[in-house]
Design brief:
30% strand; 3 helices; alpha/beta; two-stranded antiparallel sheet; 149 residues; disordered N terminus
Length: 149
């Protein structure tokens, strides 16, 4: 339960809201690398990932140095293991539903109902592939039809 307090401007401020230096939205290669880089310099980071990876349907990824042929799930698990060494990084399997700018902070509402604040945002949510409207394309995506990173 969070306590609500009004300030002089009539805005509502939440007490005991977790505060971060950086909020990263997206847990693919870009988001994971961002978290690792920031964690190494001891920044307090929250990485939010809804686990809907672009390359989830495929059995292996290619064209990533040292990771050619690796299963995307294994890649993400190994990256998270590396990141877990840094105590200033928190990983959450959530969706960021809304973000508002309030004073010098961003307030993010998470799918858990929690709200967090951050000084900076990194949008690493990737892109969405929209297969061409060809019969069978959707079913073949990630098995016989592929994208390149």
């Amino acid at each position: 339960m969070q306590l609500m307090m009004g300030n002089a401007q009539g805005r509502v401020r939440e007490k005991n809201m977790e505060q971060y230096e950086v909020l990263i939205i997206g847990g693919g290669p870009a988001g994971l690398q961002s978290a690792l880089t920031l964690g190494r310099v001891r920044r307090k980071v929250l990485l939010c990932d809804d686990n809907r990876g672009r390359n989830a349907p495929t059995s292996h990824m290619q064209n990533f140095i040292t990771q050619d042929g690796v299963n995307p799930k294994v890649f993400r698990e190994e990256a998270k293991k590396d990141i877990s060494k840094y105590k200033t990084i928190k990983l959450m399997d959530v969706t960021v539903l809304d973000i508002k700018k309030e004073n010098n902070k961003f307030i993010a509402e998470l799918s858990t109902g929690e709200k967090v604040s951050a000084l900076k945002l990194i949008f690493a949510s990737g892109i969405e592939d929209i297969p061409m409207p060809i019969p069978g394309m959707k079913e073949a995506w990630g098995k016989a039809v592929f994208h390149c990173p």
